[in-house]
Amino acid sequence: MNFNKLVVLLLSSILLTGCMYPEEEYSKNQRPNEVQLEMMQKAVDQYSTETGGYLPIQNRDIDTPIFQKYPIDYSKLREYQLIVEPPDNSFEKGGVYQYVIIHAETDPTVKVIDLRLTDKIREYNLKIDTYRQRNQYPPYGERVGGPVFRIKYEQLGMDNEPYVSSPYTGNPLPVFINGSGELVIDYRPDIFQLLKEKDYSYKEGDDLRYLLTDHYSIVPAYSEKIVLKNGEPVYSN
């Protein structure tokens, strides 16, 4: 076993199986852990080196949304003795995060999906599926921009527009629907805040969702492409 592999394996053993009090365990499982992310990044990089450029990912359909397209396959990392077990805050260990890779073709980078968003989207999807069984089409409202529409939430028996809590700020983010009937989380408020507070090199037409991944460990899952136009984030046409 070479030195790099030994270091990664020892780190994974210490960080992923260490004993903690229940309160610490719960807290750790509910937030991204930069140390665990770094450990997983090292394991992915080492796997790529040892396999001639392959990534330890699960197979997904070609049309899977980009931020959900490359979930990490822990069994492949264990096969190469690069981890002992998945991170403690991963779904597989009872946590709320799914570890994924972005920039898979150019600069494979480990991030996470907050699965609490998945739970909320699933809840709204059940309401929309019930509506479609009766009415054939989703409850489309006015167009927000590009392929994105508001939801006629009253027709779903809801008192307010559907929303999720932002995994970045905790603020409410509206949930819309696209032309394919898939739910879309509106990350524009979070992106607009970053545009005001941070320096950036994005140009007109660039996908601003990556501005979020530049500054956070969590990816903007369930989203449509958002671009820069006249200094503001808008949906791409």
Keywords, please?
237 residues; alpha+beta; two-stranded antiparallel sheet; 18% strand; globular; disordered N terminus
How would you explain this protein's 3D organization?
This protein is α+β, with helices and mostly antiparallel strands and 237 residues long. The protein is 35% helix and 18% strand. The chain is built from seven helices and nine strands; from the N terminus they run ααααββαβββββααββ. Strands 3, 4, 5, 6 and 7 form a five-stranded antiparallel beta sheet that branches. A two-stranded antiparallel ribbon has the order 1-2. α1 packs antiparallel against α3. It is globular. The chain starts with a helix and ends with a strand. The N terminus is likely disordered.
Q: How would you state the average pLDDT, rounded?
A: 90
Question: In angstroms, what separates the terminal alpha carbons?
Answer: 51 Å
| Main structural class | alpha+beta
Spatial shape:
globular
Strand content: 15-25%
* Count of runs of 4 or more consecutive helical residues: 7
The biggest sheet amounts to: 5 strands, antiparallel
Overall radius of gyration: 20 Å
Helix content: 25-40%
The stretches of 5 or more residues where confidence is low (pLDDT under 50) are 3-29
The secondary-structure element order is HHHHEEHEEEEEHHEE
Strand elements, count? 9
